[in-house]
Amino acid sequence: MFENVKSDWAANHKSINHAGFRTLLVYRFGRWRMQVQPKFLRMPLSFLYRQMEKHVRFKYGIELPYTVQLGRGVTFEHQHGIVIHGNSVIGDGCIIRQGVTIGNRHIEKPLEAPIIGTNVNIGAGAKILGKVNIGDNVVIGANAVVIKDIPDNAIAVGIPARVINAKFEGAQVD
User: Fold this and answer.
1) Which residues, in sequence order, are bridge partners of residue 90?
2) How many CB atoms lie within 10 A of CB 107?
């Protein structure tokens, strides 16, 4: 937990006042508390986590459940309107801006969630929906709606999002 917190702190401008860092600190605590055994010892920690998670959600507008698989060095560049599905996977070094939704697409498939690679830069207002894979080093434009896989090293924009630039041979450009 502490190694992750150190990398989160570095990624979030080395400031405890940064809303993204505070959100990640609560998230890391939520993950850590699940390791405490037996369950009755975990109960007060769970109560504390729920209170802190509600505070973060209401004050900063960032919904980040402890069940998300989150890499190191993730940055919430701006706050408010960020919703992340509990089954999502987000790689190391990703940047997430305000108004981003990372969630499921179909009510009939509530557990399907996106898998996001490393060093992905997600623009303000972008929506990544359903069981999609986002490659490494991808840039997702502001307000893009991603409903299909995006290859590594690509730039995706539009509604629905399409790849407009792929930096390596073999990527399909729509």
Assistant:
1) 70, 116
2) 6
For 134-144, how does the pLDDT look when each residue is reduced to its tens digit (9 = 90+)? 999 999 999 99
Q: Both tokens of residue 43?
A: 């109960």
**104 in Cβ contact with 119 (< 8 Å):** no
pTM above 0.85, yes or no: yes
The predicted-structure confidence for 91-122, as pLDDT tens digits, reads as follows 999 999 999 999 999 999 999 999 999 999 99
Residues contacting residue 147 through CB under 8 Å, at least 6 positions apart: 105, 129, 130, 132, 160, 161
Phi-psi region of 66 (alpha: psi -120 to 50; beta: other; left: phi over 0): alpha
Q: Alpha-carbon distance 167 to 50, whole Å? A: 43
Q: Which residues contact 146 (CB under 8 A, 6 or more apart)?
A: 114, 126, 127, 128, 129, 132, 134, 140, 156, 160, 161
Of the chain, the end-to-end C-alpha distance in Å amounts to 41
Handedness of CA 171, 146, 109, 46 (dihedral sign): positive
